[in-house]
Amino acid sequence: MNELLSVTRAARLVGVTRAVLQKKIQSGEMTSFDGKVTVESLLACYPDAQLEDDAEFTRVAKIRELAFGKRVFERALPDTEVLAARLAELSKILADNQGQVSQFNNLLNRLWDKLDEIEKQVNADARLTVENLKLWIKDEVESAMEPGFSNPLAIRDNMLRVMAAQVTVLPSKHDFLVEGKDSLLEAAMRSGIPLSYGCSGGNCGLCKAKIVSGRVKKTLNHDFVISEKEKSQGYVLLCSNTAVSDVVLEAAVAGSVQDIPFQQISARVKKTDEFAGDMLLLHLQTPRTQRLRFLAGQSVTLRVGGAFAAELPIASCPCDDRNLLFHLRRQPGNLFSDYVFDRLEGNESVEVEGPQGEFILHEKSPRALYFIAFDGGFAPIKSLIEHALSLNAESIHLHWMGSNREAIYLPNVARAWADALDNFHYAEHIAGFDLRVVSAKREENLVSMLREIVGSDAELIHGDVYLAGPESAVLLAEQFFLALGLPKTRVAVAVIN
């Protein structure tokens, strides 16, 4: 029987993204069965797939990790117990297959004896027919057992099963791979899947989930008590267990901002860096036992110095929930800005409240993603893009429009994405005027620049558009795209003061 592979595993085997395979399924180039594809159909679309191809995939994946600031992902082996269990599972499959081959050989021998008996009992014409049948069976068996025949995807899949276990989440049907020494929760977050969790340290129990099938192994002792009844039903903490074999589990996945709880966390300043254009990077780190759960594109309220507060978009990916990045523009006379730029010290406590906001990614949309950042609007868009990269989005386009050259304050980040990824496209645009004040002639100039962007890419009007930046620029851009016929559900807006 032709083995069925999940789209996630199949994409990894041939070195493409999930989105690429899903597009082939939607176009009819590849057949799927309940969200899975056959090895045969995969080979038909990728006949030249070779085991060595994985090296290039790995190289690009590492570049991607570096590009958007997550840690470099080392493809470390799981611990020895997990590795031994996975090898034992493959050994069992091999033993089963060898047993089936032995039974098949015994069946062939019995069939051959039966044909010999028949051959002695029939007339000459029938004997000729039996002899031809025996010759045909002999040729077919020899052809099927021809030495040297191997399926490169089967070889790679067996290797992948040792290195990584696949997890399917019900009822959402999200799936992801658990690699190296990652816990189930860490692997889900790295794949951009927002499971429920709190402390990530085994204390709160918010990541409790039910294992429907497969084997898991505890990797972290936890204080949260799971009752004996729940243990017998298969409940575990995702932060404290890893997958030994392929796993199916029941767990809630956040689908909207309403699924994310309001949180209050006391974080510490890890570092600050000043950019061009009077911009500053504020890097906060939460306690290990109290991380911020948020959706890409959302904002939080920061309180410094005991009294000064501001709402700021998070400029980092939810996949790294301890390290929160913010981009601040100096605003002389603003108490919060003055304190952060002039008085804030390393390791100082900063209160974080939130998250809030609905400027989030439409994850289930099959359309290409177009991001237009005006000046500091790059902060929430950076978070969205990093999340889209973790989801292996098929096509991402970023246009960063600055009031002046200095307003594009982190160009190397976007250029690194463009250099590392074939599906990422980046362009810079200089308005030549303050995008916080757009009126009269400036409106005409901004509309003209937007027309040039649309004119350079005919597919833009078929994609999803995300706009972030000063209110006057963003609202004008929103009206521009709505006038082109894009529905409001496909034009997301974030106003950044």
Distance between the termini: 60 Å
Instruction: Find the count of extended strands (DSSP E, 2+ residues).
Output: 21
What's the CATH C level of the largest domain?
Answer: Alpha Beta
What is the name of the CATH superfamily of the largest domain?
Nucleotide-binding domain of ferredoxin-NADP reductase (FNR) module
Low-pLDDT stretches are 50-60, 66-75
Question: What class, by secondary structure content?
Answer: alpha+beta
Main sheet record: 6 strands, antiparallel
The name of the CATH architecture of the largest domain is 3-Layer(aba) Sandwich
The shape, in one word, is elongated
Compute the average pLDDT. 86
What portion of residues belong to β-strands? 15-25%
- Side by side, the strands of the main sheet go 14-13-16-11-12-15
Helicity range? 25-40%
Rg, Å, rounded: 28 Å
| Total number of helices | 14
CATH fold description of the largest domain: Rossmann fold
The overall number of domains is 5
